[in-house]
Fold:
Amino acid sequence: MGLPAVALLLALPAPPFVVTLALLAAVGAGELLRAAGSGPGAIVSAGAFSAALVAGLPYVDQGASAAAVAAGALTLIAVLRTAHGRRASLLWWGVGVLYVGVGFAHASLIRMEPEGQRWLLVLLAAVFATDTGAYAVGRPLGRRLIAPRLSAGKTWEGAVGGLVAGAAATLAAVWALDLSIAGERAVRPELVLLALGLPVSAHGGDLLASAIKRRLGRKDFSRLLPGHGGLLDRVDSLLLAGPVLYWTLAWAM
Structure:
């Protein structure tokens, strides 16, 4: 996603923001299911719909949540009837809904926090700095591979560079945006946990996506974004870092 598109998304009020995230979740789940070759188009469509449902659930009230759960149950029944014993297809359906839908749902949860828009900026700053730091250090200095079977380009040296850059960016963003967790600019234990947790989870999200693609025998999830792969190839780090941010805030606040 380009910076102008990200800035526009963050500027949206909560309702259209969540709707947009739900649509993105549908696209991402569809990418994964198509990459997995998950049988009939009905399974792909059902998975995309269910992921969008999960991503949008945090915003709806209890009545709407009950209706959404019922719709999701009916969708699952339809998928089971369509699959005709295709266990692998159902497995990837579950992965698509949980991995993509739950990841995007946490972005919705963060947005609805009192300081949600600013916290999303912190999340983006941490992930961007982690990726940049890992590349800047790993490319010239990287020697020891983290997981050779998953990725030939991710090294321990790069991971350390990403951790340092991501932690620094997290602290700088929290203080620059004057978020309440910063207190009087004292480094609270919760903030230290966040500064370490975000870059580690961002790197973990990247490795998890690499593991999924390796399992599927794919280089990219899709060709949606020429030169960059698919949507999931661009947001994989956010899908784990978002939940870490939300639950750290839920514990700290």
About this structure: The first helix runs from residue 3 to 11. The chain has ten helices and no strands. Residues 198 and 245 are 7 Å apart (CA to CA).
